[in-house]
Each structure stands twice: as structure tokens, then as C-alpha cells.
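> forwarded from #structure-qc
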């Protein structure tokens, strides 16, 4: 699979305008400023393919990226940013819920959680929602370079307990700075793409 053959596909601000892709979709979900766009840039080794911002809540659309004509990466709007208006929050909620409730080939969800902090109530709600849908998902802890190994181990255990995850070995540690966890995520994406080709 050629990850260099990756391109921005489209941004969706209105759930009624979701593209019909007929390919596997790999979703990145998480709170505002958790590092979804930075993660996509690091995974693809393409600085700037996914726009990043220091301002939480900047991504107000669902962004689709075409990877080698085999799978699509889907960057959902970040949830839970308090300083946005009620109207903006409602729009994000409609986008996220509408996306998951539409007829799509969602093969994998990466649920991103900041490794430095306790999961927010929105993280817990999203995890419970994914449990209820039966979708395949993996919790990915971001910004792991900000912690010592001891802190990371302790926080991983704490986050797993808060989210009700029994096997902490299923959690991926990721850093957009040093690339920690990138190979694990590439392998997951490649495996999905291979299955897509077989079908």
C-alpha cells in the first residue's frame, strides 16, 4: 500500500452532503485539540495534508482523505470544546451522530484520548456509544511524548479504568512528535486495505 499516494478528498459541513465512497472508512474521533489532524499528518508523513490549529474546536467539518484509492481516513470534528456557541455545538453533534448513523462502511474507529488527563465525560460518552454500535474501535492515547514512561504507565491504567477497558495492551500510545505508535496504526490501516482488495 502506497501511503505517499494520499490526497485530501472533501470536507463536509452538512450531513446531507456526505460523499458516497463505497470504500472502507477509518475514523478518527476525539475531543477538541486532542491531536487528530496532527496524527493523520504523522501517519501519512505529509505535513499539512490535514490542517492543524492551536485553537481548540477549529475543525468544524468532517474531512475525508483518500489513501491509495483503497481506504478513506475520516477526521471527525472535535467534541466538547466549551467556548463554542450552542449553535456550533449542535452542528458538530449533528455531524458526528449523522455520520455514524448513515449507511457507511466504517471498518475501524480510532478513539483519541489525551494521555495527560482523565477522560472527559464526552470521551466516556463516545466510548459507550461505540460499544453500543458494535463498531470496531481502538483507544489511542495522544501526546505521549509529554509524559515520562512512569507517568504514561500510570495514566494508561487510570484512563483504562475510567473507560472500562480491561486489557490495557489494546491501547495504543501515540506521539505526533516522535512517531511513537505510528507503525502499529499503519499496520491496522494496511490490513483493512488488504481486505478491501480481496473483496
Amino acid at each position: 500500500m502506497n501511503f505517499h499516494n494520499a490526497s485530501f478528498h472533501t470536507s463536509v459541513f452538512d450531513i446531507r452532503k456526505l460523499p458516497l465512497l463505497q470504500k472502507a472508512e477509518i475514523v478518527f474521533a476525539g475531543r477538541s485539540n486532542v491531536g487528530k489532524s496532527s496524527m493523520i499528518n504523522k501517519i501519512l508523513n505529509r505535513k499539512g495534508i490535514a490542517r492543524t490549529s492551536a485553537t481548540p474546536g477549529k475543525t468544524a467539518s468532517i474531512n475525508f482523505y483518500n489513501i491509495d484509492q483503497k481506504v478513506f481516513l475520516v477526521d471527525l470534528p472535535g467534541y466538547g470544546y466549551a467556548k463554542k456557541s450552542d449553535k456550533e455545538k449542535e452542528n458538530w453533534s449533528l455531524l458526528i451522530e449523522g455520520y455514524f448513523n448513515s449507511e457507511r462502511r466504517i471498518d475501524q474507529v480510532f478513539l483519541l484520548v489525551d494521555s495527560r488527563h482523565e477522560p472527559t465525560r464526552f470521551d466516556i460518552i463516545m466510548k459507550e456509544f461505540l460499544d453500543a454500535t458494535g463498531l470496531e474501535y481502538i483507544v489511542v492515547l495522544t501526546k505521549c511524548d509529554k509524559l515520562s514512561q512512569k507517568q504514561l504507565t500510570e495514566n494508561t491504567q487510570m484512563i483504562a479504568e475510567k473507560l472500562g477497558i480491561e486489557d490495557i495492551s489494546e491501547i495504543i500510545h501515540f506521539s505526533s512528535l516522535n512517531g511513537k505508535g505510528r507503525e502499529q496504526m499503519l499496520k491496522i490501516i494496511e490490513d483493512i486495505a488488504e481486505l478491501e482488495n480481496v473483496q
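QC bot note: The CA atoms of residues 126 and 132 lie 10 Å apart. The mean pLDDT is 89.
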